[in-house]
Amino acid sequence: MYPSTFTYYRAGSVQEALKLLVENPDAKLLAGGHSLIPAMKLRLATPSALIDISRIPELAGIRDAGDRIVIGAMTRYDDIRRSDLVQRVLPILPEAIDVIGDLQVRNMGTIGGSLAHADPAADLPAVVLALGAELKAVGPNGERTIPADQFFVDLFTTALQANEILTEIAIPKPPARTGMSYQKFANPASGYAVVGVAAVVPLGEDGKVSAVRVGVTGAGPYAVRRENVEQALVGKEPTAEAIEAASQLASEGMNFNSDIFASEEYRAHLTRVFTKRALTRAVERARG
Amino acid sequence: MAVTKLFGAAVKRREDPRLITGRGNFTDHVRLPGTLVMAIKRSPHAHARIVRIDTSKARAMRGVVAVYTGQDLADKLAPVPCAWLIPDSDLKVPPYRAVAVDKVRYVGDAVAVVVAENRYIAQDAVDAIDVEYEPLPAVVDQEKALEPGAPQLYDEVPNNLAFHWKLHAGDFDAAWNAAEVRLSRRLVNHRLIPTAMEPRGALAAFNPGTGELTIWCTSQNPHVHRLLLSAVTGLPETQIRVIATDVGGGFGSKIPMYAGEMIAAAISKELGRPIKWIETRQENYVATIHGRDHIQYVDIAAKRDGTITAVRVRAYANMGAYLSTAAPGVPTWLFGLMLQGAYAIPVVHCDVYGVLTNTTPTDAYRGAGRPEATYLLERMIDILARELGMDPTEIRRKNFIPKDKFPYTTPTGLQYDSGDYEATLDRALELVDYRTLRQQQAELRQRGRYIGIGFSTYVEVCGLAPSQAAGAMGFQGGLWESATVRVHPTGKVTVFTGSNPHGQGEETTFAQLVADELGVPFEDVEIVHGDTEMVPFGMGTYGSRSTAVGGAALVHACRKVKEKAQRIAAHLLEVSPEDLAFENGRFFVKGAPDRGMTFQEVALQAYLAWKLPRDIEPGLEATHFFDPVNNTFPFGCHICVVEVDPETGKVDFLEYVAVDDVGNVINPMIVDGQVHGGIAQGLAQAVYEFAAYDQNGQLLTASLMDYAIPKASMLPAFTVDRTVTPTPVNPMGVKGAGETGTIASTPAVVNAVIDALAPFGIEHIDMPLTPERIWRAVRERSA
Predict the structure, then answer these.
(1) pLDDT per position as a tens digit, B95-114
(2) Interface of B with A in 644-663 (CB under 8 A)
(3) Would the pLDDT of B3 be above 50?
(4) Which of A3, A5, A262 comes nearest B772 by C-beta?
(5) Domain B34-136+197-249+254-287 falls in which CATH fold?
(6) Which end of chain B is more exposed for a tag (fewer CB within 10 A), N or C?
(7) In order of start, what are the domains of chain A with their CATH numbers?
């Protein structure tokens, strides 16, 4: 629980942070610190420097950008959870944040920190996949937008380059009659998701599924979208039978993690069960 | 002024304000000038020969003061002692070096020690030590360790068998042959990690001028540690002072003598500077004792009407890589003696094999042997009930020792002091509304929901123990307790107790006892514990003994003080002592209440001594050493109600009722707290907590990210009630309440889950009942 020596920098702006990153190629960006600092204390991570970006004013805050809601990467979980705008338009975020860690983690942790760290069992990766978010990254060559679908590429690995900083998460506002839900089976020790499934289900005026997105976390090495499930539901009446049948596809073609708490086989089973539960709840909500 | 009787009052814990506001004085809070920090390099291998240790890089680091290997410390420290030498068991105690010399035997075994200017440098230096190992095959499972060809931990312990202990009462074969029903099962009581909130640590300060060693450490029993430190360091006891005033929980894990504290003491003596060593949580998980870890083969003989006629147990206890201080006594005496539980079972046969493996040593963990016995019996009685088509409450009633049979002598020779077992069952059934609950269960099953009701009607042994019995069991010490009551000239009182509460609240309960006995205000009573320089020799706090034994010593000491005060008052009031009455803190002449003196006035006169007769010594204090004539036997009934989700295997807790009988209760709030905490720990064994090793001996649950201690949100609300059957063993009639919850709850929870799964034809699942295990059991039966 005693990290090795490192230098601490506090960046005042994104530009300053980018410059420090160039000067310290071995550095790590520090956001809420609730993943990085424990890893450093165990000497699993031994960066030579930390660049603290958590207090850069331009990186925090939530704004209404017309057809999208834009959340700064350094916005703390609890600020997102308590936002009226988010509660009204994107209620799946408060629902997921409520089951992240504990109060201290929710007070310190940031949405961008969680997404960029890409812990295979973190909750928000599934949620941004289901919401179809776009993630903005800034690097020495300017900025670019990465769709959530392309952001998570492997265990603790994202599409971000080593010299890029995730700055904001833009989430399209869902159409009317959209229901959304995050259902999680938590590890009793860590509180992380053994399996977590986020589902966003817009219903058409005919009551059929007009579009649907499903994101799964915890089950495999990184969070994934389950397009096969989505395709099985689109255009259908979301009956219990239809949801059940679509959910059976949730584990197909996936790689599953295995540990002392849950085997691959059990995780595959939970993926199907929690897909069903998330879809069922989302449809209930869509119907109001 | 009316003095309210405090015995039975829910007085708020006086220790809490300082602990809650961060003003406690734990070992790591103590700062001495010139302190050096110590860190231990630990083996990453479960079993390996040490080929070479290169400490040169570490020694050369700036801020590193010294580096020691096992060889360097071999002649400065005797081996880590084992102090429970169970007789007639062919016990072999292999040498347990504080720092390994030629071989490491578990992941976490110490291989080198660094002393540095601060903790960060110390850790850098630990990382810089290069140890070359020759890895050896490891064995972690106690049954596999006994197999021919298994890796051998010691040349001097053939087949890794440290002992084979037997306790046979009655003719088992006759009972088995005559039985109408015979059940044989294998049960696993898995390994747990105690996880006290404060890890272990020590600040050892040797004074080269006086030759005295003062050591602050995390101890449940400071005098025992003083004695053992004297034995291992060679310093006379009189030159060692052990201080452990605030200790952040122990659950048994702070009873043993450990390498860390011993090394800190030896190095402080060597360097003449204070040495501080504080474990990290990961070290705590690998290098502080673990608990439980039994594999049990059980045979039960019974009649068709449910009467149990005999129980036979063959248990394999995983002792870990070395025998920890009290380890041999835990799976033997503390287990075997309780195998008849609350039932009139006439024949009990127990054989225990203590096996050494490449794992962290095991020792006493909350309940220590008694949970293993209770789980076995309560699980088997449920299996028997199902076999016979009986309700689990009826089979228990059938076998209970009836209340008119107390004191009851068990077949293996314990004398149960007092009890009314059926009363606790009746009260618990009333609280859960059993009849309605069974109806609901049946209705919900129709709708595909699975509710289960689980029972545990336990008895346990507390108030350890008559010293003669301790001696007969091979425990290398007495189990009495001491107390000194010192009344000051103002009438204020200081108590020096040999008990060492570390969460149990005796600073409050003991003050309640003294306030009542001496008629002084609660605020006027100070409780001092945990400093060998201040308190008389005492045995410490464990085995639910502090109030039953330490409290009894205290009450006797108070009575000696009061008797002397009464003689002084009588002399000053010119009457004979028998003519005086004592009420509300005042002595007065019977029939003439105006003629009297307060306790405080008497205390002043005792110290002024102007008017004392020649046959009364000045001063007012007394010491008592209380050796109990018997243990105490709390009992009760716990009922757990769960709902199991067969789709995921997840267990939800709907209700938990505990009706315990711990004798008279001094502070009901503190007893409730003990029961709550105990249930949390016992329930967690059933469904959450487990230590896991891979086959190479790596601990896979070496952090709180992997080892699931229960959080508040993972527990039900507890309904706690009591019956009161006082014990005749001590003057207060108290039995002890520290372990009842842990002992009772584990089988209640497992029985509830298995009851919920009855429609699937599931008769047993070994703990821990993780969701995956339950899901697999359901799936197998549904297929």
Answers:
(1) 999 999 999 999 999 999 99
(2) 647-648, 650
(3) no
(4) A262
(5) Aldehyde Oxidoreductase; domain 3 (3.90.1170)
(6) C
(7) 7-52 (3.30.43.10), 57-172 (3.30.465.10), 178-286 (3.30.390.50)
